[in-house]
Every structure is written in C-alpha cells, then in structure tokens.
Write a structure and sequence with these properties.
Length: 336
C-alpha cells in the first residue's frame, strides 16, 4: 500500500523589517524578518503513483502551480535519496490563509507540498533543504519553514543571514487590511535600486532589532517596524499609511508593521502597557472611523488571555477558492 504523505506550513502577518543587508562576506542582498502568526496555514497530502512519469503530478486545486513545481523537485530528491525511481502522484492542498495580502500563502503551499512528498518517502527534510527547494519553485520564499524563529532571511537565496534570538518580544497585534483588502500586484510595483545609504539605514535597523530581541523590548521593535514600513512606502504608497501611524500614536501603540508585498498591516502594542484592553478597543474604533477594515487581533506569545482581546469584524473562511498564481477577490482574516 502506498503511504499518504502529509505536510503543514504556517503563514505570517507581513514583515517587521525588509530591505537590503550585508551577509557574512560583506555582500549586499535582499532580506526580511517576518511577523509570525499562529492559526491559519496550508495543509498538503501527497499520494505517489509508481510507474508514472515524474511530470504526471497533478494538484487539487489544479491552479497551485508553484506547489506542483515544488512537489516535482521534492520527488526527484526524495527518490534519489531512497534509491527509488521518481514518479508522479496527486497533491491535495487545503488551507485558510487569505491570499493576496502578503501573508506568505504561496510559500506556505510550497512548504506543505515539499513536506508531504518527503513524508510519503518516510523522510523529514531539514529546514535548509526545504528553503532551497522553495526558492527553486517560486524564485523567492518566506522563512516559514523555520517555524516562527526570528531570523533575518535572504528570501531570494533561501538562507538565514542572522538568527536574531529565540523569540520576538511579546506583542499584541491589531491586524487590518489597507487598500480595502485588495490584492497587491507586486510585479507591477516600481523597482527601486538600493544605494549605499539604503544599506547603511537597513543595517542600523538590523542592529536595533537585534537589541530589541535580546532585551525583549517591544517599544524598540515597534520603532524598527515603523521605520521599515515607512521606507516601504517609497514603493507601496498606501494612501492610508499616514492615518495608520496617526492611529498608532493616538492609542499609545509601539508602532506599525506592514506586508512589503501586500496589503496586510498591523498596529503593535506592548502587552505590558497599562490599559491594554482600552487601547486595543480605541484602536479598533479609530480604524473603523477611518474606513480601514480590522481583521484579526492576535499575540506573538501563547496565552489564554489573548482569546479575550476584542477583535475586528472579520469573517471566517474555509479553503481558498483560488490558487497563488491567479487573481482573487479580497480576503478577510479569521477572527481570534
């Protein structure tokens, strides 16, 4: 009996920091630090069909082309490692990650697919191997294979530039969607070549974020995220960004963060700040007054009290109706 391989991968809530950084050899390369979010994710099942051609690999839904490419690559590697001939199969993908908002839905599909293929061969690939296949499948990927560790990740090369620490400072995040929750066509965005001044600025933010993680300083992390989001505005140009930062200041948040390749954004709070519940409710009211849809209020740490925080008028969805390579309607995040 052919075993059914299974795999899972989480999503993220956009970036805390994204820009151009220096690697250990002093070479500049694109990098990012994502904001992890527990809950939504992609799940995959893979059934091999021995005797079929490796190209005879189909997906359900059929439009998950990046996940299919990743699965074909994973089959080739797993077959070689186990001494078996490569073959085709059926890949089934389900998930509840809103698409088109910059939350890593396509990377999550890809990672879940790679893990499902490996599981069908009785293998468990290392995160580095998963990252390498993910970059080959979609040219750039998010560090979701690292399961939430705060790292500076070179998304176009699939490698960790720096492990910042064991965990981010505790945060409460009020999520929202800019641009009415519409998708962002990253391929249509203007390309801005970074200069030496940009690299110096991002390296400074990197040092500050390193300190914020080491000292569990939520306020310093908020300053870094806000500065990175402001620099991202040079390309994204969200019309509501100034309103978002004004709301953050008004309610005593530590800053804001955005997806640098999508419309999702968040107002960041220090959970130890006095009157947190009042601040969060005030943030939700202010966002609603300015027509910015709130989506999900969540924490970066595990606690039962997080379930009692007020959240925005989100709608729960089931499996995504469309794949990561096609245009989709705006999505809402499931409420906590």
């Amino acid at each position: 009996m052919i075993p059914i391989g299974t795999g899972h991968a989480p999503c993220h809530h956009g970036e805390i920091l994204q820009g151009v950084f220096l690697d250990a050899d002093g070479r500049s390369c694109a990098g990012l630090v994502t904001l992890p979010m527990a809950g939504p994710g992609s799940r995959a099942e893979f059934v091999r069909r021995p005797g079929t051609a490796p190209e005879a690999l189909t997906a359900v839904p059929a439009d998950r082309t990046k996940a299919v490419r990743a699965a074909v690559l994973a089959v080739a590697e797993c077959a070689e490692r186990t001494g078996q001939p490569p073959c085709g199969g059926v890949l089934r993908l389900t998930g509840d990650i809103p698409v088109g908002l910059g939350m890593g839905s396509s990377t999550s599909d890809v990672i879940a697919a790679v893990r499902a293929v490996a599981d069908s061969y009785g293998l468990r690939p290392a995160p580095e191997a998963v990252a390498r296949l993910a970059v080959r499948a979609e040219l750039a990927c998010d560090p979701l294979m690292l399961d939430g560790r705060p790292v500076l990740f070179a998304q176009r090369e699939g490698r960790v530039l720096e492990t910042l620490g064991p965990a981010l400072p505790p945060l409460v995040v009020v999520g929202c969607a800019l641009g009415g929750g519409g998708t962002v066509d990253t391929l249509s965005l203007p390309v801005r070549e970074p200069g030496e001044g940009d690299v110096r600025a991002y390296e400074r933010l990197r040092r500050l974020l390193r300190r914020a993680v080491a000292t569990a300083d939520a306020r310093l992390l908020g300053e870094v995220a806000t500065a990175s989001a402001l620099r991202g505005q040079q390309v994204l140009r969200h019309p509501e960004f100034e309103t978002l930062t004004a709301v953050s200041r008004k309610v005593g948040a530590v800053g804001v963060q955005i997806a640098h390749s999508g419309a999702v954004a968040g107002v960041l709070f220090d959970p130890a700040a006095p009157g947190l519940r009042h601040r969060v409710r005030g943030c939700l009211r202010a966002l609603d007054a300015h027509g910015i849809p709130a989506t999900r209020t969540f924490t970066t740490f595990s606690t039962t009290t997080s379930k009692e925080l007020p959240h925005g008028p989100a709608h729960r969805r089931g499996d995504r109706p469309a794949g990561p390579d096609t245009a989709r309607r705006p999505a809402r995040l499931p409420a906590l």
